[in-house]
Amino acid sequence: xxxxxxxxxxxxxxxxxxxxxxRAVEHHLRTAYGNPSSAHPLGAAAAEVLEATRRCVQxxxxxxxxxxxxxxxxxxxxxxxxxxxxxxxxxxxxxxxxIEHDSVRQPAEALARAGFxxxxxxxxxxxxxxxxxxxxxxxxxxxxxxxxxxxxxxxxLQPIAAIARxxxxxxxxxxxxxxxxxxxxxxxxxxxxxxxxxxxISGHKIQGPKGVGALVLRENLVxxxxxxxxxQEGGLRSGTENVPGIAGLAxxxxxxxxxxxxxxPQVEALRDRLAHGIAERVPDAHRHxxxxxxxxxxxxxxxxxxxxxxxxxxxxAEGIYVSTGSACHASSAGGSHVLKAIGASPPDTxxxxxxxxxHETRVDEIERVLAVLPEAVAELRLLEA
Length: 385
Known about the structure:
Elements: E1 7-8, H1 19-30, H2 41-60, E2 67-71, H3 74-89, E3 93-97, H4 102-113, E4 117-121, H5 131-136, E5 142-146, H6 160-170, E6 175-179, H7 191-194, E7 198-202, E8 213-217, H8 243-281, E9 286-287, E10 298-302, H9 308-317, E11 320-321, H10 337-341, H11 346-350, E12 352-356, H12 363-384
Parallel strand pairs: 1-11, 3-4, 3-5, 5-6, 6-7
Antiparallel strand pairs: 2-8, 7-8, 9-10, 10-12
Helix pairs in contact: 1-8, 2-8, 3-4, 8-12, 9-12
């Protein structure tokens, strides 16, 4: 392996589209191109793609009786879940965790500017939520509780079942929304068993195409649509559906359902190999990702004395692609709200890199990173001292 052979460790930002998903997209772009709202056979064939994929989404998250609304991705799904529910139900109190993805945080903040009362759910040093504290803060006028299943920066998994059961025991009208975008490839999700009201997924996080996602909804949940027009997707998301993307999503989901149980331990072993190697070679590196109850593919680590962005570009020059955190704030000067929420110091926040692995990552690639990284940290510490 040459230094410039790409080693891609930014799979939390996006994944490479699988061959099966790419074939499905191309087929529906070129030969199965009907509009699913058309009455002729090409339209009917496209409509069947939508219905087959809905069934696949239901199976993938254990939601046989739920509705599935196709969206342009996780961001739109989260926006529809929050804005649509808040507009439809008249209750004015929101509970949102401090480490949510920006596609949840920003619509919540927009609702606060529109007059809703927004309360933040705190996390501990591992990014974990206390389910009992969430339940205690639910009120008669609480419209929504939003908790991410697996965090996209540090990987922390939340006690979703305990939160949802407790919230509904306290106020059965409160909607529990879960962003599962980062979790679907690795964790068994149980929409009905956990008692959720809505859940979001995204294609490009599971080796599907970009530009397609879904919002899973409890059967009788009422939302106010955010996009109006032809009434597609049960009137909740007008506009001709992205049939090629949805076909690609189905192919990616089939692969997840087939291989998740074997890929998860494989990826977790690679993540742990990387973590242990860094701990041995850079002993003062500080790990943000918890040691347990975490997504298997994520590793967030601070390298004291080094600016994370500078280290990122140093690794990039060696053909190693990582990130400093969520791709959504790659250009933000404010730093990661997730690291701030878990109590990371400003220097630690500035010196953090996020490594995210896939089942395509090889042992020799991890070893290459472990050979390059310590030298890069040592060199940059001398330059930045």
